[in-house]
Write a structure and sequence with these properties.
- By secondary structure, the protein is an all-alpha fold.
- The chain has one domain.
- Helix content is 82%, strand content 0%.
- The chain contains 4 helices and no strands.
- It is globular, with a radius of gyration of 15 Å.
- The two termini are 22 Å apart.
């Protein structure tokens, strides 16, 4: 999907980066919710990663990227779910 976005030009490619980073933030949010409360070290690491990814998500749109429409983001979410689920089992 990323290669196809790249072929469609910089605006779409940057939009793909933004949408991907938003997905990463959501994935990190899921991990943060499942951590044991006493795992401060992991919480701090994931929070730092989340802050970085949030900044990374804002940059492509600031550089002229085109925000993807909601249906495209939904497809990306579904593909991400397939990838994380299959990776977990391998």
């Amino acid at each position: 999907m990323g290669a196809a976005a790249g072929l469609l030009g910089d605006r779409v490619s940057l939009g793909f980066v933004e949408a991907t980073e938003v997905q990463v933030v959501r994935h990190l949010d899921e991990h943060l919710q499942t951590l044991p409360e006493q795992d401060d070290k992991s919480f701090k690491v994931l929070e730092a990663m989340r802050a970085d990814e949030t900044r990374h998500a804002a940059q492509p749109l600031a550089e002229g990227g085109e925000e993807f429409p909601q249906p495209v983001k939904q497809v990306m979410r579904a593909l991400a779910k397939v990838m994380t689920t299959t990776t977990y089992h391998f």
